[in-house]
Amino acid sequence: MRIAPGSPDWWRLFDGFRYTAFRLEALCVYADEPEPLRCFLAGEPKPPMPGKERWVARVQAACASGKVMSRVHVVAEPLTEYLRYELTWSYPPNVAAGEDIRIAPVSAGLPDRDFWLFDSRRLLWLDYDATGRMVSAELDDDPASIAQASHWRDAAMHAGVPLIDYMKDKSLAA
Question: What is the mean pLDDT of residues 143-156?
Answer without folding.
Answer: 98
